[in-house]
Amino acid sequence: MAAIEIQDVSKRYRDGTVAVHDLSLQIADGEFTVLVGPSGCGKTTLLRMIAGLEEITAGTISIGDRVVNDLTPRNRDIAMVFQNYALYPHMTVAKNMGFALRRAKVPAEEIRRKVEHAADLLGISDQLERKPGNLSGGQRQRVAMGRAIVRDPQAFLMDEPLSNLDAKLRIQMRAEITRIQRRLSTTTVYVTHDQTEAMTLGDRLAVMRDGVLQQLGTPAELYDRPQNLFVAGFIGAPAMNFLMGEIADGSLTWPLGTIPLSDLAGVEGSGHQGRVVVGVRPESFEDATMVSERPGLAAVTARVDVLESTGSDVYAHLSLDGAARGTESDDDLLRELAQATASEDPEVALAAGAELVARVGVSHSLVEGQDGRLWIDAHRLHLFDPATGRRLSG
């Protein structure tokens, strides 16, 4: 096992394209770190630089106590799990898993012992004599992981290994990967564009955009305290709602009412005055008829356009009347911010302007086509500077 240190690393291609820009990241020994961001953000390029599959334009990468910039992939003592499994179709599962050990001239008895141990760990002991073509997608992914495990490397590098699986199997395999990584305590760097996958797997998440590290932290830190509009819009599904507001005379005024700054976590100390972007997550709403009034709750009335039930939750799509929506320039600014922060994943598109999404319980009292009354916990609002996109509150 080993820590990984990435120091001021950049990747510039010959045509001038910068895939990774001056990125620094320390991954502790045994930590599970997820590189997450929209397609084209540089996360896979960074993983390939750690693996030695891409040359580094600038900076250093260390694995354990060695700088590995000039080492070949096979000399870095890492194991990579690819999106497409990369299994040899003519070999059995056992031979696929033991292939790297045979090339390294490891004794046959030791190969057999390691393959059987990894197969038992992955629950594929009864598949060892089968060939990849006769396996399901989930079984093939387990074989690819087993091939990495038998090498007992200093680090696992995983490049979107679950993207070819169906939704149900992805959930099962997420739990498998977490269980195995915790049991082995092997340093792991995992790439995904799926923020739900990132939130459920990682000890820490490194959110990237256009080759730049936006924020590094635990899933809870990124969810509760996103440091800029991009992270706020990317983390969470459905995405955070955004509305324009203004801070003046000790209060926040926004399309959903006026709230004393003393009710907002950490905003009073920021000294900010003037326009702000207010973010509120769908799950920060509560049906006012189901919850008694308490300090810190702000009342909201909005038209209920559509109610979507997922079985365990109901998502209310809300719209504000013309008086509450704000000015046309507010709408224009929000559209620009949404465009600047949205990812290519349609599920991560920002809810901005006069349309809101609220999550309520299945026992709600809301009715489509009628006004609904909800509470928002003011302590759970997120405020951002519209000029810089940086977080203002707490």
| The CATH homology group name of the largest domain | P-loop containing nucleotide triphosphate hydrolases
Mean model confidence by pLDDT: 87
Tell me the strand order in the biggest sheet: 6-7-8-3-9-10
Low-confidence stretches: 322-326, 342-353
Q: What is the share of helical residues?
A: 25-40%
Number of helices: 10
Q: Total strand count, please?
A: 21
Query: How many domains, in number, for the residues?
Result: 2
In the CATH classification, which architecture of the largest domain applies?
A: 3-Layer(aba) Sandwich
- First and last CA, distance: 37 Å
Q: What structural category do the secondary elements indicate?
A: alpha+beta
* Overall shape: globular
Describe this structure in words.
This protein has about 400 residues and is an alpha+beta fold. The chain has 2 domains: about 5-230, Rossmann fold, CATH 3.40.50; about 240-385, no CATH class. About 25% of the residues lie in helices and about 30% in strands. It contains 10 helices and 21 strands. The strands form 4 sheets. A 6-stranded mixed beta sheet has the order 6-7-8-3-9-10, with helices on both faces. Strands 11, 12, 13, 14, 18 and 21 form a 6-stranded mixed beta sheet that branches. A hairpin with a 4-residue loop joins strand 16 (about 295-310) and strand 17. The longest helix is centred in the middle third of the chain and has 18 residues, at about 165-185. The radius of gyration is 24 Å and the shape is globular. Mean pLDDT is about 85; it is low at about 320-325 and about 340-355.
